[in-house]
Amino acid sequence: MDKFEELKEYREEYLQSDWSRMDLFLAEKVRKQQTEIDNLKSFYDYFRQLYGAGLQIANWHKNGALEPFDNFFDSAEQK
Q: Where are the domains of the chain?
């Protein structure tokens, strides 16, 4: 048996194994996590663009006072 036939046999055995299903499961999990990371990064980038624009947030501390958006953003970033 040459190397190619040996690898082909190994591949068929692998594809029928539980390891193959586990790899597919993990690959799907990683893909979903990457999609979530990309979505969260887009969300963060959107608000990051507002930083320094002089916006005011009303009632952030539930006292009716205006607070700079930059303070709100900095506080959220630290958590």
A: 3-78
Q: What is the pLDDT of residues 17-71, one digit of tens each?
A: 777 778 888 889 999 999 999 999 999 999 999 999 999 998 777 888 899 999 9
Quote the CA–CA distance of 13 and 7 in Å, as a whole number: 10
**What's this model's pTM, rounded to 2 decimal places?**
0.60
Residue type at position 67: E
Residues 6+ apart with CB under 8 A from 79: none
Pair 58, 64: CB distance under 8 Å: yes
Residues 6+ positions from 70 with CB-CB distance below 8 Å: 51, 52
Span 40-54, pLDDT tens digits: 999 999 999 999 999
